[in-house]
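Run folding on both entries below.
>entry_1
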Amino acid sequence: MSDDWDVIVVSFADNAGGGNVSLTVDPGAGTEAQFIADIKAKRAAGKKVILSLGGQNGSVSVGSAAEAANFTNSLYAIIQKFGFDGIDIDLENGVSQGAAIQTYLPIAVKNLKAKVGPNFYLSMAPEWVYVEGGYTSYGSIWGAYIPLINALRNELTVLHPQYYNNGDVYTPYAAAPLKAGSADQLVGTAKMLIEGFTYGGNTFAGLRPDQVGFGVPSGRSSAGSGFTTTADVNNALKCLTQLLNCGTIKPLKAYPDFRGVMTWSINWDKHDGYNFSVPVKASLKSLP
């Protein structure tokens, strides 16, 4: 794996029922022992290795106090066995307004952090409709991650929504939606998450800049839509951190602590000849 990646998100854990989570290493990728050794080596090199839950086809069930306890205990056992630094919540199924998971998942995650310790890494990679979508229409899946984010603000390491496969994005900063994959869209949505926005008669209080990143495809093959050129990624990063290379959307001030960029995926990036990681890492290294 290229050394350009600072955080490696392993996808995906499985729903074992009753709140329990399991992990099966793909036999084609080697043995469990080899996988554990690989994680240990990456962590020794200063990388974070995270286990992701969900994805397009995955889910977890955390609908009661009992299931929350099973979630915490099963994940803690996996983290201890494999050596993960934490988890990534990428649930694209089962999270909607009024669902019990909005109540019990934060409880389970807080308890997991208490068991793992203060260095526990928590990221979230929701499709943008689950977060900024609440600005347009708060209900069903629209804005459904907002209660999770609010409940886990103190535990959250980084929120990096997926800005692909879901079309253009309405923001408070323009009458028309911002084109998916554009630098303006990346800046506008990050601005919402840092500076706050309204949803369903409520106000989402902004996160710290170091808790916010954005998620884009690594190339044209890795997502159905939302392709972003590396030039737009780099311009968005310059705008957010230095107020340089901005388009029509600008943050209120520069945020040099802005966290960075998530992409789907490391494998597609390698398949395409590192067309994403090389220029984007170079841009990140040039930032303050």
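>entry_2
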Amino acid sequence: MYNDIPYIAETLKVPVGKLYMLSNNYKPRKKRQGSIYENYHTIVIHHGRGHKNRILNVPNAFLKLVQRRLLDNFLYQLKVSEYSTAYCKGNSLLDNAAPHVGKECVLKLDISHFFDSIDDDKVFFVMKRLGVSITATVLFTHLCTYKGKLPQGAPTSPYIANLIMKQFDEKLGNWCSEHNITYTRYCDDMTFSGYKADIHSAKVVGKVKRMLYRMGFTINDKKTVFISSSQQQRVTGIVVNEKPTLSRSQKRTLRQEVYYCQKYGAAESINRKGLDISPDKYLHSLLGRIAFALQVEPDNSEMKEYFETVKSLMNT
């Protein structure tokens, strides 16, 4: 087997020794605060009362840089399924929602503990598709996993997850097409739409559960939702009953936030909401949400006005 490690080190612009330090999560005998060898740190995201906290294992700046180079130079050579709409260049939430517009009913399923269920064996088999040596395959696997799992905070993890799900997506997508059902997956959110009779007769939930079980995944039954056209059908936050649009509550929230920023300023708006964020970051976030609203509804004159208003507030 050929030795491609030097080529990989050159491509990633990291000496071979440092690559192995990163891949083994090496720590010096005398721990130094802020050392580059502290490869990961944990971040807990609080979602509020009644919701479970989200735990992220985030790589340090150096490892994150190496992982991004690995993603750009190697992993993007592998293509994900057309049914996978998350974490792909040029794709957005709208791409996931649009195929389900105007359907009689929408079925939404959620994969439990998606990233935590992806172990290093699954990652190893993805890396084998790159056609590198076994030594390089192992190195790539270790560079992209942490404690034998796919870390949710690493830049490589979302795309690797999509590659792991490629065969599943293709098989399920083809099966759905045969049953006149539309299917998309956005990370751990799976959406099915079509006629109520077709979805029920095909026994979609049972089919998906069996396919996921064979891969080591399970469905979160508490998040299974079946929505008829007489109700508001939302797919990844976008209403799809007749055309892609934001919900009234989403528009109302944006309207209120822009109003408070204009009247009281961003700092006071943050205090009112009880957020721990700088005014600059808050305005950037607000502008991003308005930009998304315009992506969903490009002709919305109200949102166009809000976009210009927030831009002007950022420049004051």
